[in-house]
Specification:
Blueprint (H helix, E strand, L loop, with lengths): L8 H5 L19 E9 L4 E9 L8 E5 L2 E7 L8 E2 L5 E3 L2 E6 L6 E8 L17 E2 L4 E3 L8 E4 L4 E2 L2 E11 L3 E4 L5 E2 L2 E11 L2 E4 L3 E3 L4 E3 L5 H22 L8 E5 L4 H7 L4 E4 L2 E5 L3 H9 L1 H16 L14 H21 L1 H16 L19 H19 L1 H13 L6 H10 L4 H12 L9
Parallel strand pairs: 1-13, 19-20, 20-22
Antiparallel strand pairs: 1-2, 2-8, 3-7, 3-11, 4-8, 5-7, 6-7, 9-10, 10-17, 11-12, 13-16, 14-15, 14-17, 18-19, 21-22
C-alpha cells in the first residue's frame, strides 16, 4: 500500500500548532481474490494458513510475499500441482515479508504455511507497528502490511497486491470475537468472511466487547451511551455531507477498533497514542473514548476529530469505490479524502473551523524549505510524501474550487470518482473539462497555482 497503510493523517496534522447527481464509478480493474482458511491460537501465537490467490496481475503471477515469521510448507497451482519456488536461501525481502519466486507463473497460486510469534501479555515489547503480527496475550492483530496472507508481488515495481476480494474461513482458539476488514464482526471463535469489494485485509481476534449502532461498530472497548452517541452522531453527519457532495450513498460505516499495543505499558507511561486507518477500520491504541471525549468537549480538539473521521470516511469513495492507480495515486487517494474532510468540517463545525484548519495547512507549506514537485509535472517517480498528500495537494484542490466555483468543483470531484485514474495531466484536464470547467480557467489555475510547485497561488 501502501495506500491506506500509512499512519493516520492526524499524526501529521498534529504537528501543525447541491449539484446534479452523477453516475456511480465505472468498473475498476479486476483485483485478486483470496480464498481458503487460516487458523490461529492467541495463547500460543501459532498461525496456520491454507490460502489460494486467483485473478493475479500479470506482472505478479510469478512471485509472492509472506511474513518473514511464516514458513512455507508447499506451493501449488489451482489444480493442486506442486510448484517449485525460491526464497529459502538468501531470500529477497520486502519490508516485513520474504519474497518467493515461482519456477513458473500460475493463474492460481495456493500456499500452505505455518509460524509462531512471541506473546506480550504484559504489553512490554520494545515497539509495535502496523507490520507486526501482534499477539498481546488476549488478542491477535494482523494487518495487510504484515503480509499474514500471501500477496502477489511485482518484483520489478516492488509492489504488493495488498488489496483483495476474499472468501476466508478463520478459526481462532481463545477468541470471543473475530473481525475481518470490510465484513461485520462476528461473536465466536470461528467464522467465514466474504467481501466482493477489494479490501486491505486486516484480521483482529479478541476477547473484548462489541457495540453496534446503525452508524458505527466499536470493537474491544465498552463506552458509556453518551460517548457512543457522540461517535454515532458525528459519523452520521459526515456520511450525510459526503453522500450529498459525491452523489453516491456512503455504504461503509467505520469500525472503531481499540487495540492494546505490544508496548502499551510504555505508551501509557509517556501518554502517547498510536493508530492507523485501514478503511473501514480505524484502529487506536489506548481508548476510543478519548475521541468521544474530544467530540463532547467541543472546541478545536473536536474540530480535528471531526476532520479526521471525515478524512477516513472519504476513503469509501477514493480507495474503495475508486481504486487509484498511476502517477496521481497519492493525490487521488489521500488528497481527495482530505479535500472532502475539509468540506465536511466546514458544514459540520462551521466556516471558522474550516478556515483555521486551512490556515494551518498553508502555514506548514510556507515553512517548507524543500521544493515540492509541480502538480502538472508529476510522474510515477515523483516523491509525493506526507506533506504533499495531506497538505499541499489539498490546498491545490481548494485553490481550484476558488477559481471555478463550488458547483464545478463538485462536478470535478464526482468526475474523478467515476473515471479511471488519469495517467497524465492531459487526462486529468479532460476530466475537468467534462465537468464543465472552462479550458481558460483550468489553464489560469495551472499557471497561477500549479506550475513550478508554487507554495501559494500567484495572480
Amino acid at each position: 500500500m501502501n495506500p491506506c497503510t500509512a499512519l493516520l493523517p492526524a499524526a501529521l496534522i498534529a504537528l501543525l500548532a447541491p449539484a446534479t447527481s452523477m453516475a456511480a464509478p465505472t468498473a475498476q480493474p479486476a483485483t485478486p481474490l483470496t480464498t481458503g482458511s487460516v487458523r490461529l491460537d492467541i495463547a500460543s501465537g501459532r498461525v496456520e494458513g491454507d490460502v489460494c490467490m486467483s485473478n493475479l496481475p500479470a506482472a505478479s503471477s510469478g512471485s509472492f510475499v509472506l511474513n518473514a515469521g511464516l514458513n512455507v510448507a508447499r506451493v501449488t497451482d489451482g489444480d493442486g500441482k506442486p510448484l517449485g519456488f525460491d526464497g529459502w536461501y538468501d531470500p529477497g525481502v520486502d519490508g516485513e515479508a520474504r519474497v518467493y519466486t515461482l519456477a513458473e507463473p500460475t493463474a492460481t497460486l495456493c500456499v500452505q504455511y505455518v509460524g509462531a510469534f512471541p506473546l506480550y501479555p504484559k504489553h512490554d515489547a520494545l515497539g509495535d507497528f502496523k507490520g507486526m503480527m501482534a499477539f498481546n496475550g488476549d488478542s491477535a492483530r494482523f494487518t495487510e502490511q504484515s503480509a499474514w496472507l500471501p500477496q502477489a508481488f511485482d518484483p520489478k515495481a516492488r509492489v504488493r497486491s495488498s488489496e483483495s476480494r476474499y472468501d476466508l474461513q478463520v478459526d481462532c482458539a481463545g477468541c470471543r470475537f473475530l473481525y475481518l476488514n470490510g465484513s461485520p464482526a462476528i461473536e465466536g471463535a470461528r467464522g467465514r468472511f466474504r467481501s466482493d469489494n477489494a479490501r486491505p485485509i486486516l484480521l483482529f481476534g479478541g476477547s473484548g466487547p462489541i457495540t453496534r449502532t446503525a452508524q458505527v461498530t466499536i470493537l474491544n472497548e465498552t463506552l458509556p451511551p453518551a460517548k457512543v452517541d457522540a461517535l454515532s452522531n458525528t459519523v452520521q453527519k459526515v456520511a450525510d455531507v459526503h453522500s450529498r457532495y459525491m452523489g453516491v450513498p456512503l455504504a461503509d460505516r467505520p469500525t472503531f477498533l481499540r487495540m492494546v499495543t505490544l508496548n502499551q505499558i510504555e505508551r501509557d507511561r509517556e501518554g502517547s497514542e498510536w493508530g492507523f486507518a485501514t478503511w473501514p477500520t480505524v484502529a487506536m491504541s489506548g481508548s476510543i473514548g478519548n475521541v468521544a471525549d474530544s467530540l463532547l468537549a467541543g472546541g478545536e480538539n473536536a474540530e480535528r476529530r471531526v476532520q479526521y473521521i471525515a478524512h477516513e470516511m472519504g476513503h469509501y469513495y477514493f480507495g474503495t469505490l475508486n481504486r487509484p492507480q498511476g502517477p496521481y495515486f497519492w493525490v487521488l487517494l489521500e488528497s481527495s479524502a482530505e479535500f472532502l474532510s475539509i468540506k465536511a468540517l466546514r458544514e459540520i463545525s462551521g466556516d471558522a473551523a474550516a478556515e483555521r484548519y486551512i490556515a494551518r495547512l498553508q502555514s506548514a507549506i510556507e515553512k517548507q524549505e524543500k521544493p515540492l514537485p509541480a502538480f502538472d509535472a508529476i510522474d510515477g517517480s515523483s516523491d509525493l510524501g506526507e506533506m504533499y498528500r495531506y497538505v499541499y495537494a489539498p490546498l491545490l484542490l481548494l485553490s481550484l474550487e476558488k477559481q471555478v466555483g463550488e458547483a464545478k468543483m463538485q462536478a470535478f470531484m464526482r468526475g474523478l470518482l467515476a473515471a479511471p485514474s488519469p495517467r497524465n495531466w492531459e487526462e486529468l484536464q479532460a476530466i475537468a473539462l467534462k465537468a464543465g470547467i472552462d479550458a481558460n480557467a483550468w489553464e489560469h489555475w495551472r499557471a497561477s497555482c500549479v506550475a513550478g510547485g508554487k507554495p501559494r497561488c500567484r495572480g
